[in-house]
Design goal:
The strands form two sheets. The protein has a seven-stranded mixed β-sheet with strand order 2-8-7-6-5-3-4, with helices on both faces. A five-stranded mixed β-sheet has the order 1-11-12-10-9, with helices on both faces. It has 13 helices and twelve strands. By secondary structure, it is an alpha/beta fold. The chain has two domains: 138 residues, Alpha-Beta Complex (Aspartate Aminotransferase, domain 1), CATH 3.90.1150; 234 residues, Aspartate Aminotransferase, domain 2. Helix 5 packs parallel to helix 6 and helix 10 runs parallel beside helix 12.
Length: 397
């Protein structure tokens, strides 16, 4: 007998759980794409997206996933042969660097591993050594979706400034936006990329590039942007269709409008606080489980963990076995251990991820943790006791 029948719970780091209000906003006929409500709704998205990112800069919207936002960011700021420095703390920073290389940039990777943040001192030293200013951009993730490492963005900005280096500072907030506190302008970020399917609680299909004056100035010398990826008509459109380079993604727009309304009704500070508290509950449960057996959190220092998603390790192949049991028997889907071991390495089966991003509350997190404990018991995996009590205590502390 399976206990999965009922409403499933998708505890993966995107697509995240979609609120009923978002789903309801999409459940309607297609609108007029030339005038009226759709045009007015798109205009309303821009200031609300800026408020989430904490920026007065511009935002270009694309019909794409996060990979499309990566490409748009690079294509509008670089020329072929330009050098970029990638601060890798997991699979997704490396992936952004791979896109840059495919576009013709020269890519240098500073790899900090999968369990620790980028070191500002190492960054400063590398930029001081680049006396000729060959490095045009520094790329990093705020929270890497695979490793779940959270980088200290203000400290990295301070390192760039201390070196006196002119490189653009470009940050991937695809996993973290509207989950982990992020202050684009206050933290000195020149460009930020995001996507719709995580903290913004909207189906996959919208990518965003937020950019400030220095990144906008770089567009004048950039040569990689095609007509479609060029952000200029998307941020200063003469006609409505230019916002999206063609037909607008009508139902995604209505979904995003509903999601942004929910975010601002709650308030950004409250959104950040809720994600922080729910994350602490997950970590408390994992700490309790780790008292016996092989389970451990991938990132040891809580200050370096994302509040959106948590990467967990078990002895291989128990991570995959646990995920399979939870989906098959309990209706809970956890994230795979993406990028935590080389392709083909059996160690890959020793990792999983618990997402706690977007439309998530206490009973959802506690329910997921309870089913994980049931899975550990069902599979006979050694683990410490008291995880749910620890999580409950973390929620009310």
């Amino acid at each position: 007998m399976s206990l999965r029948h009922g409403r499933p719970y998708l505890a993966i780091p995107g697509p995240s759980v979609m609120p009923d209000r978002v789903l309801a906003a999409m459940h309607r006929p297609a609108p007029n794409i030339y005038a009226g409500e759709l045009v007015e709704t798109v205009a309303s998205l821009v200031p609300d997206l800026q408020a989430v990112a904490r920026t007065g800069g511009k935002v270009a919207m694309y019909i794409s996933n996060g990979h499309g936002a990566w490409e748009a960011a690079l294509a509008n700021t670089l020329r072929r042969g330009d050098k970029v420095l990638v601060l890798a703390t997991g699979r997704f920073a490396i992936g952004w660097g791979e896109v840059a290389a495919a576009l013709g940039a020269e890519v240098e990777v500073m790899d900090f591993g999968n369990s620790a943040p980028a070191d500002p001192a190492r960054l400063e030293d590398r930029l001081r050594a680049d006396a000729g200013g060959e490095i045009r951009a520094v790329l990093c993730t705020h929270a890497d979706t695979a490793s779940t490492v959270l980088n200290d963005i203000p400290a990295l900005r301070a390192a760039i400034d201390a070196a006196g280096h002119p490189a653009l500072f470009m940050v991937d907030c695809i996993a973290s936006l509207a989950c982990d506190r992020f202050e684009m302008d206050a933290w000195g970020v020149d460009l930020m990329v995001a996507a719709s399917q995580k903290g913004l609680m909207t189906p996959p299909g919208l990518g965003f590039v937020f950019f400030g004056p220095r990144a906008e100035a770089a567009r004048a010398r950039a040569e990689m942007a095609s007509i479609y990826w060029d952000w200029r008509p998307r941020t200063e459109p003469e006609m409505f269709y230019q916002y999206f380079g063609g037909t607008a993604p009508t139902h995604h727009i209505f979904a995003l409008r509903a999601a942004l309304t929910m975010i601002h009704e709650e308030g950004m500070d409250a959104v950040f606080a809720r994600h922080a508290r729910l994350a602490r509950a997950v970590w408390a449960a994992c700490d309790a489980w780790s008292a016996a057996g092989s389970l451990r959190l991938n990132v040891s220092d809580p200050a370096h963990r994302s509040h959106a998603v948590t990467s967990v390790a078990l002895q291989s192949p128990h991570g995959t076995a646990l995920r399979d049991w939870l989906e098959r028997e309990a209706g809970v889907t956890l994230g795979i251990g993406l990028g935590m071991a080389p392709p083909g390495d059996p160690a890959w089966h020793g990792f999983f991820r618990i997402a706690h991003m977007g439309h998530v509350n206490a009973h959802m997190v506690l329910g997921a943790l309870g089913t994980i404990e049931a899975g550990l018991c069902a599979l006979g995996l050694d683990h410490g006791r008291g995880a749910l009590e620890a999580a409950a205590t973390a929620l009310v502390d």
